[in-house]
Description:
Layout: H1 3-12, E1 28-31, E2 36-37, E3 45-47, H2 60-65, E4 71-73, H3 84-88, E5 95-97, H4 110-113, E6 119-121, E7 143-145, E8 167-169, E9 191-193, E10 214-216
Parallel strand pairs: 1-3, 3-4, 4-5, 5-6, 6-7, 7-8, 8-9, 9-10
Antiparallel strand pairs: 1-2
Amino acid sequence: xxxxxxxxxxxxxxxxxxxxxxxxxxxxxxxxxxxxxxxxxxxxxxxxxxxxxxxxxxxxxxxxxxxxxxxxxxxxxxxxxxxxxxxxxxxxxxxxxxxxxxxxxxxxxxxxxxxxxxxxxxxxxxxxxxxxxxxxxxxxxxxxxxxxxxxxxxxxxxxxxxxxxxxxxxxxxxxxxxxxxxxxxxxxxxxxxxxxxxxxxxxxxxxxxxxxxxxxxxxxxxxx
Length: 224
């Protein structure tokens, strides 16, 4: 990621992992297989990455005490399903990191589960893209990372229910075709990464949403 984009991302982020109160031992709650730790003061971040073998339904006290957190880490936990119950129990979440799991489906009514989410990171999963409906519906999501999901197709309806989306990562997938029409529903799109796909023809920036400033397209794989 280039330094210009890092600066842009930091300046536009609100979740604790990048801005305001960075996640640290002082403001991060950790859930372990046999116990947990919760900061003495405000809890901004919740890290569940060490609790993959634990029944989360049995730790209601933990989730009650961290319910105001805005950042959740559940990356590399071998999850096969979207953690709906966990996310719903943390109503102030702005950023959710589910990187490196085996999640296939995202809930269509995301707005009912994650009321405040602005950033959803799901790279290195197996996300399924529906052909005839939107991936999910959210009026708050601003950043969506779908890198390395072996995605082969997207359509004009894929992101049509995310009107506030500004940052979209589709790099390192298996896309062979994209059209500017697929991004028309995203009037606020600022950053789009399509690199490391199999695209031989790429939409001209002039036909893309007017606010698009960062358009990563140069590096493409060759079809074998």
